[in-house]
Design a protein that fits this description.
The complex is a heterotrimer of chains A (about 260), B (about 270) and C (about 325). Chain A is an all-alpha fold and about 260 residues long. Chain A contains twelve helices and no strands. Chain A has one domain. Chain A starts with a helix and ends with a helix. The chains are: A mainly alpha (about 260), B mainly alpha (about 270), C alpha/beta (about 325).
Chain lengths: ~260, ~270, ~325
């Protein structure tokens, strides 16, 4: 556990050095959040669509989305690819701690830094300005747990894609797939309730909406059955872990053959 | 002249060979980028069409708007993305110094040696398709005048996109470890997914005269659609090609100015 | 013919000077303070056509800075440089055509492409006439033993192969002057020997002037007749290698085994370094006791085995910079 914390710290510290990056990152994330809020203000004020969703709901969606997105940011694919590319994978594999845990913990450190210094402030400001209701304790806890599971799902997807690097040497394209699927099927850009029915149905069959969208519904106390959501999340994690094992077996064989 | 063309051809050939060294990766990337940007198009379309319109812009018109952004980015980034974003790294590794020993304009060398990344064909293909789709649905006729105008708008906007990438890289001479100005630029471009007339007039003036990002897609689309929207007259878009030239020239001059500083300070 | 001249060459860097901590960072944002660091401090030298000059000094002494000024990458703060009559920073492009530059830690070939593609680009970039390109390519392919390598992607080459290919690439336009910054860094012994051999051949064939920086004194000893030594931006020595060795070196050590019991007295002027009877090691310096004299004195002690070692250039330099 202590070693794991060291990796988290290492990830966090990596980012501390870049102070001006942090400052500009804060400016950028503030800009983005308030841009999105402005867009929805304009959209919701057009009276054509009578909607029981209020701006406050939408702002809550955007704020929680921004927080979760930054907490679950993950470039496991890129990390794995660069480890494999320059051969330091063998060094990482000889450490007495699994490669996956190293990658996860470093990423957690980096993300904590990002949330703390670049997203928390604009998010807090938006929560105060728009008077967003925080959920009660039980929903709050369910939300936190569900968000954690969401992060695990995203990480698993990224990690599996990252292992493609064992077969193709480059995976710069992996992030495009993840971002595309997250945006379209994960409803990170606009909430699923605006989707046409057929597309919403497609999303139900895929894991992406369980990353941030479903946790947000729990936060809004809008989820009909939070426990069911968490159950489905666990099922997806199981399925992805299984897939990961399959890919890892093949990757390992490849690693042995090529000698790293 | 012939020698210049031969040199250019050699650079281009090398870049394309490099892109196709890993054909599987190239094509997986091609599809991935289409999926990623395609998702953006889809979500924009879904958002606007479920409300009917956005500040007087129909969903098709907003698609056209974003298609202008992406197609000009495809062209601008084709030449300028890697030379700009890679500059800091090249300075650190010494590759930049090595490139200064070549008998060629250093800026042009960066563009030709590191730019021309065939990965942007995917952005180009997708945005061209969406643009044609939107134009047909809006009902803009393929008259010669329209086509010439669209091409000029795209070229001007591409110069703005490329120019801004170069402008960001000017900071890399100083911030060789990590240049956050790029993040700021890419985030600022989120303004361009929707008509800038939805923002306050102060912001519109800023995006027109100070950071003329509005000329990438808002003013060209407004001009093409003859749509009154925002604080300025819709025909302002006519000067897009001029703005493009101006932004690129300013970016080039600043880059060369910083290079002279680099030459004398080594940082 | 004098080809490269540096006169009173000075290079100062401005580095930001900042108080530690957050307060310092904020203060630096509004009132940036700079202090000058002198990397090159009034250096003079002139180099004749066809010379191979070793430019040496410890890390951070200013070797790379000098080479960068000679190739027009950096502008001098004061003083002047001319390379073949050109002022490099004013006439950077024309100067680039008459010099070849190799940075040892940095390959200038396209990583993913076959070597020959990078050469094709140089051919266009330097506008090399077809006949000369073909002739040079054939010549370097032969002496650098590049035959099979030309069509291999650079990433598959070994470090030594890469360096050979890089030097050949820098020579395709027949430059009169070649700057080599650490050309043997990280190479194994065989590869080093090959590179040295190539540099010698290039120099002999077309009288190419070579300026070489290296941390491997083996490179310098086997290639250069002349060295320029700099430390903290100042020139410390400029002249023949032999003279340098005679002036600053001259230490030797003699190991021997004595026949009888412990010799009653060791020769005057020599220091006893190791005393593992019957094995002894003594050291001395040419300037106090000549090596030949020392040996004859030791011989009189009655010995069985004797081995002597002269100080290497490396050791002299290390001692010099202590």
């Amino acid at each position: 556990m202590k070693t794991l914390l060291e990796f988290v710290k290492a990830g966090f510290k990596q980012r501390i050095i870049y102070r001006s990056s942090t400052l500009w990152g804060l400016v950028a994330s503030t800009l983005t959040l308030f841009l999105q809020i402005r867009l929805w203000q304009v959209l919701l004020s057009s009276a054509i669509l009578q909607d029981d969703r209020t701006l406050t709901d939408m702002v809550a969606f955007l704020v929680i989305n921004a927080l979760l997105a930054s907490l679950t940011r993950c470039d496991a694919a890129g990390t794995l690819a660069s480890l494999i590319g320059d051969g330091s994978i063998s060094c990482s594999l000889t450490r007495p701690i699994s490669l996956k845990k190293q990658v996860v913990c470093e990423q957690i450190g980096v993300n904590l830094h990002f949330v703390l210094f670049t997203v928390l402030l604009p998010a807090a400001v938006a929560i105060v300005i728009y008077g967003i209701q925080l959920p009660d304790v039980s929903y709050g806890l369910l939300f936190a747990f569900s968000a954690l599971l969401g992060a695990v799902i995203l990480f698993e997807i990224q990690y599996i894609l990252g292992m493609v690097a064992f077969f193709l040497t480059t995976v710069w394209f992996a992030s495009f797939y993840v971002s595309g699927f997250m945006k379209l099927f994960g409803a990170t850009a606009i909430p699923l309730w605006y989707y046409p029915d057929w597309l919403a149905n497609v999303c139900y069959c895929l894991p992406f909406r369980y990353i941030t969208y479903e946790p947000i519904l729990i936060f809004l106390e809008d989820a009909p059955n939070p426990l069911q959501t968490i159950g489905i999340q666990l099922l997806w994690i199981g399925a992805l872990l299984f897939l990961e094992q399959l890919v890892w077996r093949r990757a390992e064989r490849k690693l042995v053959v090529q000698g790293g | 002249m012939k020698k210049k063309l031969l040199l250019y051809g050699t650079f281009l050939r090398l870049r394309i060979l490099m892109n196709f060294q890993y054909p599987t990766s190239y094509w997986l990337g091609f599809v991935g980028q289409i999926i990623s940007y395609g998702a953006t198009f889809c979500t924009i379309f879904i958002a606007v069409s479920s409300f009917g319109s956005l500040n007087g812009w129909t969903a098709d018109e907003v698609l056209l708007l974003y298609a202008f952004e992406l197609i000009s980015y495809a062209i601008g980034a084709f030449f300028c993305f890697h030379p700009s974003t890679g500059l800091a790294n090249n300075i650190r590794s010494g590759a930049f110094d090595a490139s200064l020993t070549k008998p060629m304009n250093p800026f042009l060398f960066q563009i030709l040696n590191y730019g021309q990344d065939a990965a942007y064909f995917s952005h180009f293909t997708l945005s061209l398709c969406v643009m044609i789709f939107a134009l047909v649905r809006i009902g803009i006729t393929p008259a010669l005048g329209n086509i010439v105008a669209i091409i000029l708008f795209i070229l001007g906007a591409s110069a703005i996109q490329g120019g801004f990438l170069v402008l960001c890289s000017v900071f890399s001479f100083k911030m060789v470890n990590e240049n956050p100005i790029f993040t700021l630029f890419f985030e600022s471009k989120n303004f361009l997914k929707y008509p800038i007339s939805i923002y306050g007039s102060g912001l519109q003036v800023l995006l027109t005269f100070v950071l003329p990002l509005g000329f990438i897609n808002f003013y060209p689309s407004q001009c093409l659609l003859s749509k009154e929207s925002g604080v300025f007259h819709y025909q302002l878009g006519i000067i897009t090609p001029l703005v493009g030239v101006a932004v690129f020239v300013v970016a080039y001059l600043l880059w060369m100015w910083r290079l002279r500083h680099y030459n004398s300070s080594g940082s | 013919m004098v080809q490269i001249i540096a006169e009173n060459l000075v290079k100062e860097y401005q580095v930001p000077d900042r108080d530690p901590g957050l307060r310092g960072a904020v203060k630096a944002l509004f009132h940036p303070r700079y202090r000058g660091i002198t990397a090159i401090d009034h250096i003079n030298f002139s180099i004749e056509k066809g010379e191979i000059v070793g430019y040496i000094g410890p890390n951070g002494a200013g070797k790379s800075t000098t080479l960068k000024m000679l190739s027009g990458i950096l502008y001098p703060t004061a003083g002047s440089v001319t390379v073949n009559g050109l002022v490099p920073y004013r006439d950077r492009k024309r100067n680039a055509r008459q010099i070849g530059v190799v940075f040892g830690n940095r390959s200038q070939l396209y990583w993913d492409l076959p070597v020959i593609d990078s050469y094709q680009l140089n051919r266009r970039l330097y506008d090399i006439p077809d006949a000369i390109y073909r002739e040079n390519l054939a010549y370097f392919t032969e002496i650098f033993d590049l035959g099979d390598l030309l069509n291999q992607p650079v990433r598959l080459l070994s470090l030594g192969q890469k360096m050979r290919a890089t030097i050949a690439g820098a020579m395709l336009h027949s430059p009169e002057i070649l700057f080599l910054d650490e050309p043997t860094i990280g190479l194994d012994v065989t590869s080093k020997l090959k590179i040295r051999d190539f540099i010698r051949q290039i120099n002999q064939k077309s009288g190419t002037t070579v300026i070489l920086t290296s941390h491997d004194m083996g490179d310098i000893e086997s290639l250069c007749e002349r060295i320029i030594l700099i430390d903290e931006g100042k020139k410390k020595y400029d002249g023949p290698v032999l003279e340098f060795e005679n002036t600053f070196g001259g230490n030797y050590s003699i190991s021997f085994k004595a026949v009888s019991a412990r010799p009653s007295q060791f020769p005057e002027g020599l220091t006893l370094r190791e005393d593992n009877a019957p094995y002894y090691v003594v050291t001395g310096n040419e300037k106090q006791v000549r090596l030949s004299d020392a040996i004859s004195v030791i011989n009189q002690l009655g010995i069985e085995e004797l081995e002597m070692k002269n100080q290497t250039l490396e050791e002299i330099i290390n001692e010099y910079f202590g």
